[in-house]
Design a protein that fits this description.
This protein has 9 helices and 14 strands. Strand 11 and strand 12 form a beta hairpin. The structure holds (3R)-3-hydroxy-3-methyl-5-(phosphonooxy)pentanoic acid (PMV).
Length: 362
């Protein structure tokens, strides 16, 4: 692993000010990360699709500060101060001063907004922490001319996104990413994700991920608690083995464009995640009656039409519908006429596999 400890400090009296801005997407895991240890290290490898529309837009403005001590941060989310978010970011910056010591020399203002609603069942920590990590790496690059190498830049961004929120490390790459050591991938690491978008078969490049909102309520269990519950879970070791097997099989399916194998793995992973929560102590049921009704309808539709419509779930009741672009019209019409009845206020969101984060230079 590279040494991320940066020695860089601004020379005394050097006036610097400017801003960096990144738009970074959320991602949806097909093989799930569930269970962690140490500093946000995963118990098993995971593979995700990077989304296109669900994006956090973060601008970091900086100017020199009188006294280089501690973090000086002002933060807004969608135009208003948000003390809870602000505290989390300040803590994150403080914990990572060992790697970005120059942050102590700056007054920092961070303004962030999401393109998707808060209650949409989309992992906003993945988009927001990856946007923040990308801004920090850009700031280092602008101030010191380091991280010129693209691979090194995104690897460092992925590393720090992971420290903010595990799954965020996968959001820094276009199309698809793999995180966690796996014997099938010698370059894979627990410390950062690696890009696998280049090997993605074209059928997966425009793959859809439409999110059916069964409930807009906050999740009953945070992912932090969910990860912890894996420590006492009696099925943990066989689950980790299954995730390894699924990672190798899914990577193969993504390369050759095998949508059926992809779908089988996606659904098995989603149901396993929920089964693990049901088998935890204390146990949790995160699906709702409408989640099950939707699963039933989707499987029936697949068997009636032979169209490749599959689902996945995160640790909540909302369904992510996965299907290739060539079936878009038929499937979206099915969603509108048959499935939105199971959604809270008929609410669903359209997204798809996307081209990754973008730096905005304005
Ligand atoms: O990154 P976290 O700690 O919010 O955990 C994410 C867990 C899942 O979304 C359920 C699975 C995953 O790999 O994204």
């Amino acid at each position: 692993m590279p040494d991320y400890k940066s020695q860089h400090l601004l020379p005394d009296g050097r006036a610097v000010e400017g801003r960096v801005r990144w738009q970074s997407p959320s991602n949806i895991a097909i093989v799930k990360y569930w269970g962690k240890h140490g500093k946000q290290l995963p118990r098993n490898p995971s593979i995700s699709f990077t989304l296109q529309n669900a994006v956090t837009d973060t601008t970091l403005r900086y100017q020199p500060k009188e006294k280089a001590k501690g973090i000086s941060l002002r933060f807004t989310f969608e135009g208003s101060p948000r003390p809870a978010f602000s505290q989390k970011i300040e803590q994150f910056l403080e914990q990572n001063l060992w790697a970005f010591p120059f942050l102590e020399q700056l007054d920092i203002q961070i303004d962030s907004s999401n393109t998707f609603p808060h209650s949409a069942g989309i992992a906003s920590s993945a988009s927001s922490m990856s946007a923040l990590a990308l801004c920090l790496c850009s700031l280092e690059r602008e101030l010191f001319g380091t991280l010129a190498d693209e691979r090194a830049f995104f690897q460092k961004a992925s590393y720090f996104a992971r420290l903010g929120s595990g799954s965020a490390c996968r959001s820094v790459y276009p199309y698809a990413a793999l995180w966690g050591q796996s014997p099938s991938f010698p370059k894979a690491s627990d410390e950062f994700a690696i890009p696998i978008g280049k090997t993605l078969h074209p059928v997966f490049q425009g793959f859809h991920d439409d999110i059916l909102i069964v409930s807009k309520k906050e999740k009953p269990v945070s992912s932090r608690v969910g990860h912890q519950l894996m420590e006492g879970n009696p099925y943990a070791s066989s689950r980790y083995q299954q995730a390894h097997d699924h990672t190798s099989a899914l990577a193969g399916a993504l390369e050759i464009g095998d949508v059926e194998i992809f779908g089988q793995i996606a659904e098995s992973e989603a149901l396993t995640l929920h089964a693990l929560m049901m088998a935890s102590s204390p146990p949790f049921i995160l699906m709702q009656p409408h989640s099950l009704a939707l699963i039933d309808r989707i499987r029936q539709y697949r068997s009636d039409t032979r169209l490749p419509l599959y689902f996945t779930l995160d640790a909540g009741p909302n369904l992510h519908l996965l299907y290739p672009d060539e079936c878009r019209e038929e499937i979206q019409s099915f969603i509108r006429t048959e499935l939105t009845a199971y959604c809270e206020d008929g609410f669903w969101i359209q997204d798809q596999v996307g081209s990754g984060p973008k730096q905005i230079r304005d």
